[in-house]
Amino acid sequence: MTTTPLLELRQVSKHFRKSPGLLSRLRRAAGMPLPQSTVFAVDNVSLSIQPGEVVGLVGESGCGKSTLGRMAVGLHSLSAGERHWKGELIGSAAAPAPAALLAKARHGLGMQMIFQDPQASLNPRMRVQDIVGEAPVAHGIVPRAQQAEYVASLLERVGLDPAVIRHFPYQFSGGQRARVGIARALAVRPEFLVCDEAVAALDVSIQAQILNLFMRLRDELNLTYLFISHDLNVVHHVSRRIVVMYLGRVVESIASERLFTDANHPYTRALLAEVPTLEVRKKRFIAIQGELPSPLAPPSGCHFHPRCPHAMPVCREQAPALAEIAPGHHSACHLNRLPA
Fold first, then answer.
1. For the segment 67-120, what is each residue's pLDDT rounded down to a tens digit?
2. pLDDT at 1 over 50
3. In the chain, helix, strand, coil percent, each to 5?
4. Which of 101, 157, 168, 266 is buried deepest, with most CB atoms within 10 A?
């Protein structure tokens, strides 16, 4: 029996177009060719997340995973595709219908985001009481008279002393600022959190504490996570399913416990080969060849083919579809179409 996904992205894309400057307008007036100014950050991605699920999203820097996370919570508009929450349309590249706007307003607080840099995401001029307590008061979740008490309870939940409620962000360590960011996201009682490299800027020991906090909060509050990271070990530890992105496209989706044994796509296997290990390598380490292509001019066909050791002519001509190769395991590679 299948359940309705909590969040579903259907064939979404995001393109960033740069407005032409004076020099570009002069070149255009003179009939000269203009350089490409459209960044293809996310390209035709579909993703569904079930209630209570923890999905890890991994890939190299610049692959579009943070952009996809911002699209998921509505911080970025869609250049193509649709966004659904509990089966209701709440975002579309086309002009939204009134019903979609009402659904977005009704469910908007159910999705929150925790950002990569806890210091940059906190207003340095605001005290913790206002950073965490501003949104729940503004949305009528708690009356202003109970703001301090409500914020103190949230600080305790994330492992901070309520006595710091009048502190400014500069008075905290990196790990403490990360906890303040988590408390702020929890303040409006969301069901779904996008964690964008939420532990990348922290020391390893503090990372472990924050990851354990995320898992405890998931159990206590029945939360659903999209956990974005470039660290496969981190997402493997916290996620039930791992989605791998490369240059704006999803290339593989696999259960977490099968990642290190059954990875199919050449890019996923290359990422796994680069994971640090204490074991002596039996084979010579070979890094992924070449540089990540520019999203201003992505390669034709399979985006990974210029760096893939198994590239075939069809890889240069046709983009492979994300197809199920085993129960719950999807991969986008032309090698899967070859006869056994």
1. 999 999 999 989 999 999 999 898 888 766 676 666 666 667 899 999 888 888
2. no
3. 40, 20, 40
4. 266
CA–CA dist 201, 222 (Å, integer): 26
Q: How many residues does the chain have?
A: 340
Give CA–CA dist 234/287, Å, rounded.
Answer: 21
C-alpha dihedral sign at 213, 219, 220, 222:
positive
In DSSP notation, 17-44 reads EPPP-HHHHHHHHTTPPPPP-EEEEEEE
Give 90's DSSP letter.
E
- Token digits of residue 154: 């949230």
The identity of residue 54, as a single letter, is: V
Q: How many CB atoms lie within 10 A of CB 147?
A: 19
Does the model's pTM come out above 0.85? yes
250, 332 in Cβ contact below 8 A? Answer: yes
The owner of tokens 């702020």 is: 184
In whole angstroms, give the CA distance from residue 4 to residue 12. 19
